[in-house]
Amino acid sequence: MRTYQHPDLATVTIEHALHALSDPVRLDIVRQLDREIEASCAALDGGRPKSSMSHHFRVLRAAGLVHTRIAGVQHMNTLRREEVDKRFPGLLDAVLGVKG
């Protein structure tokens, strides 16, 4: 069975996280996951091609922002909010426009 690699956030740089968040599609995915807690890749694709979405999820995972688990035929995604907030305090609130 396929598994995904999720980096230890201690190894992720702020530049890497900001790069992942700089793309409007990836930022939209993060916004949706912040609201919905968990969602399948299909629920987050916005009608975009699967190959394009695979790339975006790969970038988000590599930056330590998203965790993907396999549940049968679905790939379920969650925002690693608590871990990201600990590593980069205030980053997601600032990027997502959350008022403190």
UniProtKB/TrEMBL annotation:
Show the InterPro entries listed in the entry.
ArsR-like_HTH, HTH_ArsR_DNA-bd_dom, WH-like_DNA-bd_sf, WH_DNA-bd_sf
User: Where in the numbering of this chain does the HTH arsR-type domain appear?
Assistant: 6-99
Checking CDD domains in the record gives: HTH_ARSR
Gene3D superfamilies xref list: Winged helix-like DNA-binding domain superfamily/Winged helix DNA-binding domain
Recorded protein name is Transcriptional regulator
